[in-house]
Amino acid sequence: MRTFKVLIAALIVALSLFANAGTPAQTETYFFKLSKSLRGVPPTLEEREEFAKAVQAGTAEAFLQKKTQEYLTDDKFTFKLKQKVDELLKLKQQREFDKTPKETGTSYDRLVSEVIQSNSSWDQLLLAKSYHYMPPIPWDFLSSYNEDAFFFIPNQGHVPSPSFEDYLVPDTKRVERHVAFAPDDLRIAGVVTTPRFFGRYVNTALNKNRRRAAAVFRVFLCDSMAPSVPATDNQGEKQDFDTIFPGHSSYTEDDIRRNTQADVHGQLMDCKSCHYKLDPLGQVFGFSAATLAPLPAAGSLTFKGQDGRAVAIPLRGLGDMAQALIQQTEYEKCQVRHFWRWYIGKDVPVSRHKEQELVKKFNDLGRKTQDFVSYLVSLPEFKERPQALTQDQLLARRAVNIMKNCNDCHQSQDKDPDIRNWDLTDLPYSQDADERKDAIRLLRKNLDIDHDGVGKKMPPKDSLWKLSQDDFAILRDWINRGAPDFDGNAQVSPKGTP
Amino acid sequence: MRTLGTILLLATVGFSPFAKGSFEENAHRYMSGQDIIWSLSMFFDFSKNSNNKEVCTELRALNETLAGGNSPITGEPISPSPTQGTVLWITGCIDEYFASYNVLVGDPIRAKRLLGEEFYKSVTDFRLWQPWADVPENLQRALIRHMVAAFLGSDDVIKDFGFIQNPDDFREQLFIAAQTRTQATILQIVTLLAMNLSVRDEFLSY
């Protein structure tokens, strides 16, 4: 009997480790999560006492709403959200909280912080036409971000020269500068026209501002153009080089000169899938190298929308680019997904229906940063207690991660509208059981999943992206288990079952 | 069988600091490196450390990889969850803090936050260098009760997290562990408790 009791106790303890509660977190746990998520620290002891009193008085909800608003105006919230924006733009993160943003502040740092702190529209990251920054230390010749040179040379043709007194002024007494451009200045587009962005995405004669254009597509339209990422192994690099420069081993000097001018690489079909978007947008950056261009340059915002529509908006400059971007549905969806990932989690999938709800709320709130975050942390998905994923749920997420690469090509260039509009990352594939069966069968056949892609049709032979053996193993396992969706429910009958 | 049951029960304590599932795909979110520094600064002023205070107060190249930083190339975390290095970083800073600084004299606000009002008032009679064994049991338990609540939260929050099913048992285990150190001073016990609690998942994640 004693043995039996010990075994039962051990079983209960063991099961509790893997308990999938699936119930909303208790209110106090939610309070802890709110504080840690928004401002990076747990509630203070004094706050916990106030919360306990509020619970006793039956005013816990009002207390939590008040605290949410308080946390959103906290400097730590601004710092944390700014760090997330830094990660998004792949900029080196600001590490020193105490020295941010006024003391160290570059124009980029100040702009992002101000948008967050003042609860401005998120669009201001693109639409802003004025900047504050601390001028560089006069003797700091190695300063990476010379804001004065970036903003003043195009306007005045020279950089304000430091006086002798400037050399004597200690760092802490530097006076911040403010540079404001006209509201219709076509050269200016918020964070995109800052030294930090230009410094991070450096332009070259060969690159022709495509790197900057690619960053704009990735950050604001969530178009990462994955197929254009080259291989990193020797064999893959050689293959890519042969694709970009066919016949290069027999080039004469004249051929090399001609190819540098003619941009052969940009004319090849596989390359065009990205270049038709990158090249026109790159032109809008004009002659911008290390500083802002003195004149705007024309180009266009060109891409295929997720609904299959062809977008080709002529642009007179970066200012027009900013205006055009914020009006795209892809921009709205992309930005709400960023916020979802930051505050709910990238492991919590967003269905199409949920995405539409989020976009509507984002717009209803005027795209205001703090207001939208306040909305997100009030959602059940934020309040839900953490739960471990089952094997099927984990497998679904891994399979979808592989399918993202398929989406990148198919959604942008497939001629068949059914394939183009099929989001391979949105599970389940259909409400109709027969349609789901057909979809899975198509995947299995075209990728030749059962034979590690020996007889595959997709991805095409000349595609720069290929599935690895691990990828095939994941997809095979996923399909054999019935291609479960994010909740772990099989879309089709698992292999071996009728 | 009794031994096996005991081992299984103790295993829940031993393995509980580690989150279920992977950092990228599980719903437990670890605080960022800056969050960890801020959260620890509620209890410790690491600027008073004699050695390597920058490692404990700022994120630098030296400690960024230990604190969950992202690789600038991929944008993904360098490590999916806290590592042994993270634990050594946090506990090293705490150890150095108590070794360098008389927290009772220098920072009464943080001292009260760390020790609790009840223990703080009584310890001025004992001083932190007095033997732990000389402290009355009720004060010993009050200290443990306060520190667990201060770092991990109330019993409801602890249970809701899912690792500790019975907070009373957890506190009892800490008390028993403290009692086994018969030669320890109050300072040593406080240091050990602070180190233990500050590297638990309940403190580092949400």
Record keyword descriptors for this entry.
heterodimer; A: about 500 residues; mainly alpha; two-stranded antiparallel ribbon; 23 helices; about 50% helix; flat; B: about 210 residues; 13 helices; about 0% strand; disordered N terminus
Describe the protein.
The complex is a heterodimer of chains A (about 500) and B (about 210). Chain A has helices at about 1-15, 25-40, 45-55, 60-70, 75-90, 105-115, 125, 145-155, 165-170, 195-200, 210-220, 235-245, 255-260, 270-285, 320-325, 330-345, 350-365, 370-375, 380-385, 390-415, 415-420, 435-445, 470-480, and strands spanning about 130-135, 175-180, 300-305, 310-315. In chain A, the strands form two sheets. In chain A, strands 1-2 form a two-stranded antiparallel sheet. Chain A is mainly alpha-helical and about 500 residues long. Chain B is mainly alpha-helical. Chain B is about 60% helix and about 0% strand. Chain B has 13 helices and no strands. The N and C termini of chain B lie far apart (about 35 Å). Residues about 1-25 of chain B have low confidence and may be disordered. Chains A and B meet through helix 1, helix 2 and helix 5 of A and helix 1, helix 2 and helix 10 of B.
Largest sheet of chain A: 2 strands, antiparallel
The largest chain-to-chain contact, stated as pair and per-chain residue counts, equals: A-B, 50 and 44 residues
Number of helices of chain A: 23
Q: Give the assembly state of these chains.
A: heterodimer
Radius of gyration of chain B, Cα only, in angstroms? 18 Å
The residue ranges of chain B in which pLDDT falls below 50 over 5 or more consecutive positions are 1-26
Radius of gyration of chain A: 27 Å
* Average predicted local confidence, pLDDT of chain A: 80
Query: What percent of residues of chain A are in strands?
Result: under 5%
Give the termini distance of chain B in whole angstroms: 36 Å
User: How many beta-strand runs of chain B?
Assistant: 0
Q: What helical percentage do the residues of chain A reach?
A: 40-55%
What is the helical fraction of chain B, as a range of percent?
55-70%
How many helices of chain B? The count is 13
The profile of the biggest β sheet of chain B is:
none
Number of strands of chain A: 4
